[in-house]
UniProtKB/TrEMBL annotation:
This is Allantoate amidohydrolase. Homodimer. The keyword Hydrolase applies. The keyword DNA damage does not apply. Belongs to the peptidase M20 family. PANTHER family: ALLANTOATE DEIMINASE-RELATED. Its cofactor is Mn(2+). Keywords: Hydrolase, Manganese, Metal-binding. NCBIfam families: hydantase (TIGR01879), PRK09290.2-5 (NF006775). InterPro entries: Amidase_Cbmase (IPR010158), Bact_exopeptidase_dim_dom (IPR036264), Peptidase_M20 (IPR002933).
Length: 420
């Protein structure tokens, strides 16, 4: 029989994230930087392994350098539910991006271990090594390996500091770059991947909700637009005769904003980068290179918005006598979270908080997006102060963390009926 379960506390989870925000768990003075396979990464994996062991898990490092803890199920070789997020952090990042999800996963197992509760599935906690591209010009390298979709990475890929290669960094951990793909869980009885993560946006705060459930990770397209007009003297070229590339770009930026604002399904449209040629105060701008980034919860919503913005851009350029080139730079499909797991997560969050959890589209990419190639995924978002992330000012409240932890434990209980 199961003992009475105590109420899990968010206090320890927050304290642990904060503890891991300093040396030796950070590779920078006065802030947090935890690049994949660096000294701080090693120290962090050792500390996390201790906490996993205390929570009743066996631990190992997989062939891609991810840390994995396992809490056995009722029978050997049971199906596996993976809980986790990423261990690495951007330079001068916050305590909670990625790490809160890892710690909450450990706390979830600790909670059941204290009560001697086992499930018809094993619970594994995975801390991904490279999500951020924190060390190498990659991103989500290690979830690609686990999901079995890793394309052979370049062993000679240098790190940002130019001090070592991917092969060298892995070797320092006793790992072989040629065997990274062996971290794949294809063929293993993994049945779900569940990730809790800070929202990294302001929607939950605006709606005054502690938790949100992710319906999909956004479809994204990024374009580079080049507008060509005619450079000329700012004092002598009459207004009527100008072909000002920057004035055209300004109209396109406002059109993108208008289309984005009118959209639904988590639609967002951004022009974030602008190069003006020649870029002098006394010259009419002859050329502009600008970015356009459009994201939405479905491919269809994104495609419609992109088509509309590009169509308006062509009209603007025609009217202004500008040439325009459009190059697609990035094209990512939307990743829907699993409908049934999402419904269970909504149920869990609703029962813990006493109010419905909003369904959100994640505009940012996550390991869950890659893991969806392997298994059904579900994501829980936790409100963070001001929506701020990738910044030392990242913050969550203890009450919200507690609600997230109780949602994870409740969700795991619901899974027992789902997979039991
Ligand atoms: Zn993250």
């Amino acid at each position: 029989m199961m003992e009475t379960l105590d109420i899990p506390s968010g206090e320890r989870a927050i304290a642990r994230c904060a503890e891991l925000g300093r040396a030796p768990y950070s590779d920078m003075e006065g802030g947090l930087f935890r690049p994949y396979l660096g000294p701080a990464y090693r120290a962090t994996c050792e500390k996390l392994s201790q906490w996993m062991a205390q929570a009743g898990m066996s631990t190992r490092m997989d062939a891609a350098g991810n840390l994995v803890g396992r809490y056995e199920g009722l029978v050997p070789n049971a199906p596996v539910v993976l809980l986790g997020s990423h261990i690495d952090s951007v330079r001068d990042g916050g305590f909670y991006d990625g790490m809160l999800g890892v710690i909450l996963s450990i706390e979830t197992v600790a909670y059941f271990a204290r009560a001697g509760k086992r499930f018809p599935f094993a619970l594994e906690v995975i801390g991904f090594g490279d999500e951020e591209g924190s060390r190498f010009p990659t991103g989500m390298l290690t979830s690609h390996a686990v999901a079995g979709v890793l394309k052979a990475p370049d062993p000679a890929m240098p790190d940002w500091a130019g001090t070592t290669t991917l092969a060298g960094a892995l070797e320092g951990f006793g790992l072989d770059v040629g065997r990274m793909h062996a971290a794949s869980r294809k063929g293993d009885p993994v049945v779900a991947y569940v990730e809790a993560h800070i929202e990294q946006g302001p929607a939950l705060e605006a709606e005054e909700r502690p938790l949100g459930v992710v319906s999909a990770i956004a479809a994204q397209q990024r374009y580079s637009l080049v507008l060509r007009g005619m450079a000329g003297h700012a004092g002598t070229v009459a207004m009527a005769l100008r072909r000002d590339a920057l004035a055209g770009a300004a109209e396109i930026i406002l059109a993108a904003e208008r289309v984005g604002r009118a959209g639904t399904d988590g639609l967002v449209a951004t022009v974030g980068s602008l190069d003006v040629v020649p870029g002098a105060a006394n010259v009419v701008p002859g050329e502009v290179v600008m970015s356009l980034d459009v994201r939405a919860g479905t491919n269809a919503a994104r495609d419609m918005a992109v088509a509309e913005i590009l169509d308006i851009a062509r009209q603007i350029c025609r009217a202004r006598g500008l040439e325009i080139d459009m190059t697609l730079k990035q094209d990512l499909d939307a990743t829907p979270c699993d409908a049934r797991l999402t419904a269970l997560m909504e149920q869990a969050a609703g029962s813990v908080t006493g109010m419905p959890a909003p369904l959100l589209v994640s505009g940012a990419g996550h390991d869950a997006m890659i893991m969806a190639h392997l298994v059904p995924v579900s994501m829980l978002f936790i409100r963070c102060a001001g929506g701020i992330s990738h910044n030392p000012a990242e913050a969550v409240t203890q009450a919200d963390t507690e609600a997230a932890l109780r949602t994870m434990t409740t969700f795991t209980g619901l899974l027992e009926r789902h997979f039991g």
